[in-house]
Sequence to fold (220 residues):
Amino acid sequence: MTTTLNGLLHISWRRTWQDLGLPGTNDALRDRLISRYAEPHRKYHTLQHLHECIAMLARYPGEPEHAGEVEMALWFHDAIYDMGVPGNEERSAQWAMDELQAAGAAPGVAERVHAMVMATRHDVAPLTADEQLLVDVDLSILGAPPARFDEYEVQVRSEYSVVPEDVFRSRRKSILLAFLKRPVIYGTAFFHDLLEARARENLLRSVASIDAAPPTVRSL
Fold:
């Protein structure tokens, strides 16, 4: 890790652990999580993504109901990321719940963090303001500057390099169109104003790129 990245993660972890009123700092758990995000098969869901999410959360000017829980959920939201294996969010959420309960978190904390991690499946509408905030932060990459968004697209393709090109294009286009069909991508006013327009521009550009790509021919 770079010094800047290491420093931000260190500060975030200590702040989050303190906000939750937990004893000590549990740096061992932090290091286990960092090791997970540094796994070699990851190309997008990496420490870069975690760093960007934490930095984006810091830009939010509002007051989350449970700020420490939102940040802890960010740490765990992609903690388990096994390619081709369903249930990554479920296992990440359960890991978070187990660790927080073992650390003596106050009643409700572990359950709310579990629910927030599950919200990053992006298959149902968030149920609370904190869940919405977490989801918006997780999706902030869609509204990144074009160069970073293009890098993200390359990273996602690399992460799924085992998927044949025609299959990947079809599935990727479906995902992009699903976001474009939403009335809004970002549910918080702050992130809607900051990122919505650029996210839609990026998504439309990506769909157009897929449509313009030459047909693929599979070898026999």
